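G., the chain you wanted modeled:
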Amino acid sequence: MAHLEMSVSDPYAPETTDAPPIAAAVLRWAEVTDGANEACLVVDASAFIAAASVSACALLGFANPEAAIGQCLYAGVLPLVDFTSAAAAVPDVELTKIPPLQALLSEHLARGLMRVRQGNDIITVDAVSTPLWEAHRVVGSLTFFCLV
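Predicted structure as tokens:
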């Protein structure tokens, strides 16, 4: 199977000496995500949610985008369960394996399945994440989700 990597931001943007607390690339994609119909999520380099579309919130268990913003993915804010028949909660040490965080850590495109508890139901979502680049470094990730 062919492997394709892509970048949705300019990895060679000029560096600035007075960078804002949130990188400009993250802010640009956060604005796009705010109005998106697709289920998508933007996190910054520290894994804090910068933006989430309404449909992503519905899939991931957030009440609305405002409730998602500022949450850290490392803090276990997603109701993730494993792929066993018991559907046990995913331990915090395993969180680095989910695509939004894999893209940050590996600096490459990441894709994987995630199981999410929604009340009494469990759904599976396919997640595709790309790192967001600015001034030759990864400053966040953009993830699209699709119900499987």
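Residues 1-5, 9-20 have pLDDT under 50 and may be disordered.

Shout if anything looks off.
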